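The authors assume throughout that readers already know how a fold can be written as discrete tokens. Each protein is reduced to its one-letter sequence and a matching series of backbone shape codes. I therefore recommend that a typical entry be quoted early in the introduction. For illustration, here is how one protein appears when written out as sequence plus structure tokens:
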Amino acid sequence: MHVENQLRPVDRILQLISEMSFFNNFNPLELDRISKHLTVRDIKKDEVIFKEGDIGDCMCFVAEGLLHVHKDIEGEKDVIVSWISSGKSFGEMSILDLSPRSATVVGARESTLVILSRAHYDMVLYQHPKLGVKLLSGISRLLSLYLRQATGKLAAEISTH
């Protein structure tokens, strides 16, 4: 993973996260605290962010740009299964477990990511437990939403057969 301009000034990170719905419930002090644990990474078009099977060690928020998610499906290699646009996140499960990545994520165009590593998430939990719980609550809401969407798609697929 080649990283350019990984660390940006905190004010740039604050600007990026203040525009993301995930952080809407965070007050200015909490945003300031969490921003110190985030990094920014610029992605080139067609750059692989991570591959299916890699060990996950971070979650990412798309500040700007568009990504596509590929899944290695038996008989059909490299199928695009979804798109991730500005304001959305991915990699949430890796904050909670050490399982391998479930898909490959690639830049569909130049993009900017805000990254929370598992190590920094653990640091937030230790140093600021209330903030850590707020992060965990947000991650739980996202995972619940994704599960509901997947269930809906599965039900729709089953009903058409």
Observations:
- The chain has one domain: 10-159.
- Residues 10-159 form a domain with the Jelly Rolls fold (CATH 2.60.120.10).
- Helices lie at 10-18, 28-35, 93-96, 118-127, 129-159.
- The longest strand covers residues 76-85.
